[in-house]
Amino acid sequence: MNISSTDNTIDSIIKENKITRFATELQNTQNEERKTELKDILALLEGHHLKSDSGTARDKLNNIYQKIDENSLKKKWNRLQLIQKIDRTKEFLKSLIKDETNRNQIQDELIKMLNDGELKTMKYVKYDHDEKQITSIEVLTVDPKTNIYSIIRNAKKTKSTSSTSKNIKVKIDDDSESD
User: Fold this and answer.
1) CA nearest to 134, candidates 176, 73, 175, 64
2) 100-126 burial by CB neighbour count: b if 16+ within 10 A, else e?
């Protein structure tokens, strides 16, 4: 078997697996928009045979995957995956902050906040899901004189104090019962 033949065989197997996957998803999905996308993908996969140069078929599949990725960003902020939130945050900061040092510092802090779940709601991040971009981040401020951006964190001391009080109260109740 030569390399070209092996590549064609592998491409055929991959294509059949993709057809099976998308056909199964089509049967199980309830979302009409997703059904339309899946039908388009299946039509493309079933209608075109991979050629020996397979560059054009791979390009078409890559375009399909890119379209799927783009459509996955058309969700509300709280429905996006963490990796998508990080990507959208980086894009927002790249267009907003020109100073690379300041941008990298703010980016690191915001990614840490995302990982810690501090920016998971739409209360802190305004996201236009139709345009697939962040419009504002509430904790981000700029000094108009220096044009340096910074992050304002809200301290949640009242929550931790009240939970500490509950713990102390429980301990007192437990001590009083044991007497």
Assistant:
1) 73
2) eebbebbbeebbebbeeeebbeeebbe
Tens digits of residue pLDDT in 3-32: 777 878 888 888 889 888 988 888 888 888
- Identify the CA nearest to 92 among candidates 57, 49, 137, 122: 137
Name the strand (E) or helix (H) holding 77.
Answer: none
- Of the given ranges (80-89, 90-99, 105-114, 159-168), which has the lowest mean pLDDT? 159-168
Q: What is the pTM of this model?
A: 0.53
Distance CA 71, CA 49 (A): 26
Query: What's the rounded Cα separation, in Å, for the pair 4 and 96?
Result: 48
For residue 125, the cross-strand partners are: 137
Q: CA–CA distance from 174 to each of 167, 171, 177, 178 (Å)?
A: 10, 5, 5, 6
Q: What was the pLDDT predicted at 11?
A: 84
Q: Which of 136, 144, 133 is nearest to 74 (CA)?
A: 133
